[in-house]
Amino acid sequence: MTETSARATECCRTNVDRNEVEEVTVELVPWAPVESCTYDRVLFAPKPYTPADVNMERLVRGLAATVPEGHCYVAGTEPTGIDAYAELLEALCEEVIQVETDADCTVYRATRPPDFTPGNQIEEREFRSSVGDYTCRFVTIPGLFSWEELDTGTEALLRHTSVPDGAQMLDLACGYGPVGAFVGARTDCEVYATDDSVLMTTFARRNYERNGVTPAAVETDDCLDAFPDRTFGAILLNPPTHAGKGVTWKMFQSACAALADDGELWLVYNEIMNYERVLRSEFGLNTKVVASVETFDVTVARS
Fold first, then answer.
1. pTM reported for the whole predicted model
2. What is the second-level CATH architecture of the domain 125-302?
């Protein structure tokens, strides 16, 4: 079993244990399946919220990891694009059959040809972005947050955040790494980064390197689980509100615990979220809105 999300990976492991399933390996990987491994059967249910070309890249990689004459299965509904995935398999394999239809879900089985060279289904994008006197270069792909350009909220956070030289700075929910890249380029600080998505952290590492930033650590984990005993002088965060209140609250709680005595939590968010009030009333921090840009507020919080 493979996943790209640290939280989902832990859920998979929990459910395997609860159901007493033996001889199961659960791996956290940027692209499924695990590179260098081959399989007799590969099963893939594309996530409806993932861009189609990302799902197609995963499907082709799954087919490539199937042994010759082995079977690659894909399941989905018409709204999630199952017909397009079936057409992709038909273009690559001589034998593709519909094996089952249950309600709105359709399952296709493709037989991997003996000779198969996968082509790329997704193209990387490169762009430059400037904040103040600094310009950084980024490489991204569809499916990463704000993959075509630096988003307004993150830019506002970078323009109004102050991180002192020598600080241990955590880029929390780092995405493809714009915060760590800019802060690491303009200050002499020690950069740490973490994100739930291994695909995000994979590109964060690449973008730090592209911009001459050598991070102390880049980890894929849920919130701050990768740094249970470390404190930071500065934590920068653009909260992934789409992940739900439970994730956001865990981020706030763990960030509060990880702040050094004189540390600061800098965050940007849509003004309707009122996180400056939440951090003050629910987590006991002293908060101040330092800037408002369009619909975004930039807030600094201290213990």
1. 0.92
2. 3-Layer(aba) Sandwich (3.40)
